[in-house]
Write a structure and sequence with these properties.
Elements (H helix, E strand, L loop, with lengths): L1 H33 L5 H9 L3 H19 L4 H38 L21 H24 L4 H32 L4 H4 L24 H7 L13 H24 L5 H21 L15
Helix pairs in contact: 1-10, 2-4, 2-9, 3-4, 3-5, 3-6, 4-5, 6-10, 8-9, 8-10, 9-10
Length: 310
């Protein structure tokens, strides 16, 4: 069994290397062939695919709250955890809703101005006309999203024992580390590489650079793909599933892999990234989550390296 798992990991690494090699040679040709900023499929993922960082953080904060409720901590400690967890969870939901709403406004403006629906200012260098209803919509959608999250987390956690919650606390801490580690690595690399996006080059490809070339901080942030990294954060979700429920954990794992692949493809399709960009963005999340899963002694297929059950 260990040999099979090791072989699987080597295969994934080989696929990543092959994709980066292909991107290093044919990034430009692939983007010129696939790019379509009028793609509704790619726009859907662009606008509403940045959800898993918020979901992971919100689930983690709820785990802290339910653990505190059932623990022997003193009243001051419990109240402190409740307040900090609620603030952190609500803030992450607000950020998630804000991104989705921002991209929605961008798409609506594109339609009104006869521009491609998926054309977006990914690097924040332009201006976006914000409608009057934006603030109210942000507040209302955040409240609704938090309420839905609280309902499902209550159904999930209310009957957990203290021992089960102790195991989940470790998973929650790992999830927070995974989100911030992956985001930090991607942001740092974006600034360092300074690679222009395909849609920035579509009228003049003379400034195209390979992913192997480091350009320094220049305001361009194509490499690696942040959306792809965020999409592949879904790979952490199986670790929230009880280790003994192998079938459910495997289904969540399969969903995460499909979503991550679709997100990566959508970024190439919409012209926001090259193949090598999405490959590296995906790899960062996969590597970070794989590392944390091993530190937690957990596997995505439902087996626990230390026979930890929660």
């Amino acid at each position: 069994m260990a040999f099979i798992k090791e072989k699987k990991e080597v295969s994934i690494l080989a696929i990543i290397i092959i994709l980066l090699f292909i991107g290093g040679i044919w990034d430009q040709q692939i983007s010129q062939t696939l790019m379509n900023q009028n793609s509704y499929f790619a726009t859907l993922f662009q606008n509403y695919g940045l959800i898993f960082a918020g979901i992971i953080i919100f689930m983690s904060t709820q785990i802290f709250i339910y653990f505190a409720m059932k623990s022997g901590l003193n009243t001051f400690a419990k109240i402190s955890i409740y307040i900090l967890a609620l603030i952190g969870g609500i803030y992450e939901v607000w950020q998630t809703v804000k991104y989705a709403l921002y991209y929605t406004v961008s798409s609506l403006n594109n339609i009104n101005n006869d521009l491609p629906i998926g054309a977006a200012n990914n690097d924040g260098s332009g201006t976006l006309e914000i409608p009057d209803w934006y603030g109210s919509a942000l507040i209302v959608l955040t409240i609704i999203s938090v309420a839905i999250g609280l309902y499902f987390c209550n159904r999930w956690l209310k009957d957990k024992t203290l021992e089960e919650l102790k195991g989940l606390v470790l998973v929650a801490l790992g999830g927070i580390v995974a989100v911030f580690a992956a985001n930090t690595i991607v942001d740092a690399m974006k600034d360092l590489w300074g690679r222009m996006r395909p849609y920035e080059l579509q009228d003049d490809w003379s400034q195209y650079t390979s992913w192997l070339q480091i350009n320094g901080s220049n305001g361009h942030k194509s490499f690696p793909s942040g959306h792809s990294e965020q999409g592949w954060l879904a790979l952490y979700l199986p670790l929230f599933v009880q280790a003994t429920n192998k079938e459910k954990r495997q289904k969540v794992y399969l969903f995460a892999c499909i979503f991550g692949c679709l997100m990566a493809y959508s970024r190439v399709r919409i012209g926001a990234h090259f193949l090598s960009d999405v490959t590296m963005g995906s790899t960062i999340s996969i590597f970070v989550i794989y590392t944390i899963s091993r530190l937690l002694n957990q596997r995505f297929d439902g087996t626990s390296l230390a026979d930890v059950e929660y």
